[in-house]
Amino acid sequence: MDANKSAHWFLSPNIAAFTEFWFTDHVAAPLFDYEADAVAQALERNAESRFYSSLLEYVADCLAVRDPDYAQGLSDHLLALFDPDGARKNYILLQEILADLRLRERAELGRAFHSVSERVAEQGDGLSFQASHIDGRDRVFLFVAARIRTKAQISEAIHTLAGAAMVHFKKSSCLVIVDRDGKHYDLALSRSDYQLTADDESAAQKYFGPLRIRSVDVSCL
What we know:
The chain has one domain. The protein is 41% helix and 18% strand. The chain is built from 6 helices and 8 strands; from the N terminus they run ββββααααββαββα. Strand 7 and strand 8 form a beta hairpin. Helix 1 packs across helix 4.
């Protein structure tokens, strides 16, 4: 295709007898509905998808190293939920969940995480959340951003919101990703044997019932 957006087929070389040169002919070729604007838009969407996807990829990468101050401010009950130092393995399960997502899935989840973080960053104080799920996957993703909140306060909030999200979206698993003060990422995964309670039902009505829902096609770029 040339600069004028005209397409051509180049034919086999035509070699003249008793000469040392050859040349080719070309004929007009179909455009196959090629549209430069559509290609440019697809490339732009791909770049956007990779940006938002990279946010979750970065979170997954951070899991490989434990925060040396992770125990600070945690109760004995919360500390018991962590793998012992020197015997960490559950972080690999969290990484596998994120790695199992397709690019477009990670991108839309990353977009939701970015939106929550930006929202609470503008406020400068408080806690904000957003839940997302992917059709065909029995898991809801809960994104939380908090500023000037203790670990105990955040833990209490995500316990309530995770159960509420599982009820509202009818999922048996919830992965929570927390942006804490724009400096730390905390992740939590619901237990496989967790039984939803009446309190979870009430919280679902309170926290997710009034929220609007947006659907996005993640089947292609």
